[in-house]
């Protein structure tokens, strides 16, 4: 059974609010009850203090407090301050609200009591904090009135507590209703954008990248929406790259296959007899397909390679550069292009795959050889850089517009259709080079080589920086 996230969030928030309200109401009730009891005890103690002088007078005149029970029940609060002399023997006033009163001796013995509840056990309350009465010959007793003796709350106090509970219940109901509405709003605010993101995942799975996401929010959900949109854009870009790669691969293979098939068909039909030039041309088509298949295989290997399993070793970048120079110097000389090398002594080693790094230099120098006119120069330099080695390969060719320098690293990208095909390029060399350099933690970029040409800049971190 599917459980709604909105219901879960709403239930948790509602439970939290209800528990908080219940705790608040109980706390208020407990504090109010305690305060009322304290007030009741204070009032009753005040009563005890007011009648204490009258009882002390009775105590001193009679020498005992026994027999005072009948008098205690007729003491009136407002008359306490005026009772002097022989205690107004003609009458002691009206009853004192039927209050519970008790006198205890200095040893805690119950001497006199009025209106005691049936549950009272006859023991003096702990703490012995009754009002002290002084009799003849240093005798003392302690007086307790009402709530000083038994824990009780008067009628007015009970009415107040009842009114407080009713007010708490009404407040609880109102706040609970408001909280339920607020919980509903908040849960919808949280769940609705999550639902949109869930719908967006299904759209991306279907190949639909037109997403309805609110990326303007400045909270975690907005951040999640922006991250998801960025991921979807990257997936779309990769999907477009994949489709273009498949289409370009088919096109690149179709052209030489078609030409080769036409040549073979004409020979088979006796249109002409193959000569050395025809065979050479046909072999060129085969070599072109071989290079393309080889580059496609290299890209596939790089895409699926696990860098953690690639054997790496400390490689001398200066040695790599010199080796690449020696491998190409004759080809450049045949094209009447001067290839020079300038390597700083004792370059720090880089941590890498010697074969793959050599392939990078082969690809870049092959491009430079194809696009540098006769009588020009190509220079290779290698210098120590910030925590790495900076290698530059600068030519004096036609150059590359700045807005296209990043795109030339895309697979099968060409500035024009004839530039690489005429020279035998597959359009994959720089893409392969970037993959290899990135796998080594470095970078490869193209800069301007004034006054003409380009400078391919390869940065490789040193072995210590890479680790």
What is shown here, in short?
This protein has 467 residues and is an alpha+beta fold.
Give a quick set of tags describing it.
Helix Hairpins; alpha+beta; rod-shaped; five-stranded mixed beta sheet; four-stranded antiparallel beta sheet; 13% strand; 3 domains; Heat Shock Protein 90; 467 residues
Describe this structure in words.
This protein is an alpha+beta fold and 467 residues long. It has three domains: 1-212, no CATH class; 220-304, Signal transduction histidine kinase, dimerisation/phosphotransfer (DHp) domain (Helix Hairpins, Orthogonal Bundle), CATH 1.10.287.130; 310-466, 2-Layer Sandwich (Heat Shock Protein 90). It is built from ten helices and eleven strands. The chain has helices at residues 5-62, 69-72, 155-205, 220-268, 276-304, 317-334, 354-371, 417-421, 429-439, 463-466; strands spanning 101-105, 110-114, 131-134, 140-145, 313-315, 338-343, 350-352, 377-385, 388-394, 443-448, 454-461. A five-stranded mixed beta sheet has the order 6-8-9-11-10. A four-stranded antiparallel beta sheet has the order 2-1-4-3. A two-stranded antiparallel ribbon has the order 5-7.
């Amino acid at each position: 059974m599917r459980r709604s996230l909105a219901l879960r969030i709403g239930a948790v928030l509602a439970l939290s609010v209800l528990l908080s309200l219940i705790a608040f109401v109980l706390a208020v009730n407990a504090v109010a009850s305690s305060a009322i009891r304290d007030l009741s005890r204070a009032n009753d103690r005040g009563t005890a203090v007011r009648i204490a002088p009258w009882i002390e007078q009775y105590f001193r005149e009679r020498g005992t407090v026994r027999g005072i029970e009948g008098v205690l029940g007729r003491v009136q609060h407002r008359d306490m301050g005026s009772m002097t002399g022989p205690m107004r023997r003609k009458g002691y006033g009206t009853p004192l609200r039927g209050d519970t009163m008790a006198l205890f001796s200095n040893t805690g013995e119950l001497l006199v009591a009025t209106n005691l509840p049936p549950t009272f056990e006859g023991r003096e309350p702990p703490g012995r904090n009754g009002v002290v009465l002084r009799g003849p010959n240093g005798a003392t007793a302690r007086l307790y009135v009402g709530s000083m003796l038994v824990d009780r709350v008067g009628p007015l106090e009970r009415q107040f507590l009842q009114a407080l509970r009713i007010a708490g219940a009404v407040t609880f109901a109102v706040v609970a209703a408001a909280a339920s509405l607020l919980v509903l709003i908040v849960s919808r605010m949280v769940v609705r954008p999550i639902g949109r993101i869930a719908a967006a995942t299904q759209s991306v799975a279907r190949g639909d990248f037109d997403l309805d996401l609110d990326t303007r929010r400045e909270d975690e959900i907005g951040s999640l929406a922006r991250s998801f949109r960025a991921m979807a854009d990257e997936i779309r870009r990769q999907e477009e790259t994949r489709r273009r790669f498949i289409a370009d691969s088919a096109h690149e293979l179709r052209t030489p296959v078609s030409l080769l098939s036409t040549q073979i068909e004409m020979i088979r039909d006796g249109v002409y007899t193959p000569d050395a030039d025809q065979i050479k041309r046909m072999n060129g088509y085969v070599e072109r397909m071989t290079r393309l298949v080889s580059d496609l295989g290299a890209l596939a290997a790089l895409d699926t390679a696990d860098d953690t399993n690639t054997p790496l070793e400390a490689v001398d970048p200066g040695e790599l550069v010199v080796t690449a120079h020696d491998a190409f110097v004759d080809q450049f000389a045949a094209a009447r292009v001067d290839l020079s090398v300038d390597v700083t002594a004792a370059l720090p080693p880089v941590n890498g795959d010697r074969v793959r790094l050599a392939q990078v230099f082969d690809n870049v120098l092959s491009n430079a050889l194809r696009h540098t006119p006769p009588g020009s120069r190509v220079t290779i330099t290698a210098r120590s850089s910030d925590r790495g080695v900076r290698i530059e390969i600068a030519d004096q060719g036609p150059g590359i517009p700045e807005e296209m320098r990043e795109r030339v690293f895309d697979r099968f990208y060409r500035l024009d259709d004839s530039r690489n095909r005429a020279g035998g390029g597959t359009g994959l060399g720089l893409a392969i080079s970037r993959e290899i350099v990135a796998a080594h933690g470095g970078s490869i970029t193209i800069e301007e080589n004034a006054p003409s040409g380009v400078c391919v800049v390869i940065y490789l971190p040193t072995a210590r920086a890479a680790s």
